[in-house]
Each structure stands twice: as structure tokens, then as C-alpha cells.
Amino acid sequence: MKKTIHDLQNSEMPLVCLTAYTAPLASLIDTHCDLILVGDSVSMVLYGEDSTQKADIPMMIRHGRAVTKAAHTAFVVVDMPYGSYETDKITALQNAQHIMDETGCDSVKLEGGQAQAETIAYLTQNDIPVMGHIGLLPQSVSDVKDYKVQGRELDSAKQLMTDAKAVEEAGAFSVVIEAVPEPLAAAITASISIPTIGIGASNACDGQILVSEDMLGLSLGRPPKFVKQYAQLNDSINDSIETYANEVRTRSFPAIENTYKETKKKTA
Ligand code: KIV
Predict the structure, then answer these.
(1) Mapping DSSP to helix (H, G, I), strand (E, B) and coil, where does residue 143 land?
(2) Which of 105, 168, 226, 232 gets the most CB atoms within 10 Å of its CB?
């Protein structure tokens, strides 16, 4: 059965969420997770760009469609890319509707708290389910080295609490909290009734999300401190490619079992 917002909001277990950009990975994740996010991190992870600002609507639709085709039970959220919702709420609604129609996803996600509350309210009033995203906002950062923990000072912590409440009041069904210290993540989680999904925001959140390639050891560069790597796929892929290269060079691949032997006989 396909997960619904009601299921996510009433889960007694922590919500398990991961990103996916392709059908094969979405299909594996679908078996184990409550929610799949087609994150705009796709622009960095798959396309090698230096910022999520490089994602655009066609990119999100292409990957969103691949994921929704493969996800039969998980709730699918597609990120609204940089530039697609900040200018005004009418444009935001048109773009959100376009992304939902073209991908068949269950919701969109957009970054920003109080500053985006009016847009979130407008989308939800027009039947677009919205997931919020507060704390570190990757679309506002053009260099990865500026990815920093948020809410360490009293003023910024207060603002994050205001952001969380504004997002909830605007009608978001859930909110991602990124790169926030545990006490603040716990206080926000206790203060709002929609599920908080943490990424670098401690165990105090109602659920967790990671970029799949980071937790699988399949991304370029060193992952952030909050990532636990459950596999080292880069190493096993590297070993497989090395073996293949050796076998091609020594003509041990293709072997007999990989070769078509029969030649079709000509009829007179
Ligand atoms: O784009 C993304 O992958 C995200 C996650 C980091 C939550 O927004």
C-alpha cells in the first residue's frame, strides 16, 4: 500500500527516508523506506556540479519520473529547484503543479522557513502537499565549504524555532531540519506537531534522511560528519572495473559462456 501523509504523521516508529534519483535505486529503497526524496542534490551527486543551485525543473522532472515509476509504497517528494519558487507565489504554484503533474510525485519540498511561509500556505491551499526544509539551506550556499551547523547562537536558534512554527502553520505536512545541534532539534521537534526529518540534526527528530550515495560510499569526496557509511560501494565498483579491464586485456573476457557460437546456416 502506498504511504500517505496520514501514515507519515501517525507513525509510531521513526520515519526512514533516503534520496533517490534513478529507478534502480528507488526500487531498492522502496522496500525499506517510508519516504524517498528526489533531492536537488542530484545536480552535485550525479552531474558533478558544485552547488544544488545548478538543478533546474527539467532535471527534477526527469529524475522524479524515474523514481515514481519504481516506488510503489514509499511516499515520493521532489525538490523544487533553486529559482523555481522564490520570486512569487503564483510562479511557485505553476512550477509545483508542473513538477507534480509531470512526475506523479506525492509532494514537493522547498527550502526556507518564515521567509517562505506565504508561498507554502499558497501551495497547500491549492492542494499541493509541501515538505519544508529549515536549518542549513543548500540552495543558499554556493560553495560546499560554507555548509555549516546552524542555530548555534541564541538569535539564530530563535529564528529556527520561528521558522519551524511558520512552516507548520503554513500547512507543510513535515519539515526537514538540516545541520542543527541536538538540543535545538529536540526543542523544535517538541514544539511542532508535524514530523521533523533530521539530516545532521540528531536522533531527536521524528525521522532521518541521508543522501543515499553518501551512506552507500558511492559519492565523490569526503561525506559530512553526520553521515554514517553503511557500505563502500566505490571500492567494490573500483575492484570490479579493475578486474574487467585486466580480463579484457588478457582476453579472458568474454569467455565461452559469454559467447554466441552458432552461425546461422544459409538456406539454398
Ligand atoms: O537535496 C537533497 O538531497 C536534500 C536532502 C539533503 C535533505 O534536500
Answers:
(1) coil
(2) 105
CATH code for 5-230? 3.20.20.60
Q: Domain ranges in the chain?
A: 5-230, 233-261
pLDDT in tens, 42-59: 999 999 999 999 999 999
pTM of the model as a whole? 0.96
- Which residue has a Cα nearest atom 4 of ligand 1? 39
8 A C-beta contact, residue 121 and residue 170: yes
Residue 244, CB half-sphere, CA atoms under 13 Å: how many?
A: 6
The reported pLDDT for the residue numbered 268 is 62
Is 130:171 a contact under the CB 8 Å cutoff?
A: yes
Q: What percentage of the chain's residues is helix, strand, coil (to nearest 5)?
A: 45, 15, 45
Comparing CA positions, the residue from 133, 261, 150 lying closest to residue 194 is 133
148 Cα: distance to centroid of ligand 1 (angstroms) = 15
Q: Cα(129)–Cα(107) distance, rounded to whole angstroms?
A: 5
List residues bridging with 9 in a β-sheet: none
> What whole-number distance in Å separates Cα of residue 114 and Cα of residue 161?
10
**Mean pLDDT across the stretch 220-249?**
96
Question: What residue's CA is closest to ligand 1, atom 3?
Answer: 39
| 128 Cβ below 6 A of ligand 1 | no
Mean pLDDT of 182-188: 98
Q: Cα–Cα distance between 215 and 182 in angstroms, integer?
A: 20
Residues designated catalytic: 178
C-alpha R_g of the chain: 21
* 117-125 vs 89-103: helix crossing angle, rounded to 10: 50
CA distances 207 to 110, 117, 141, Å, are: 18, 22, 24
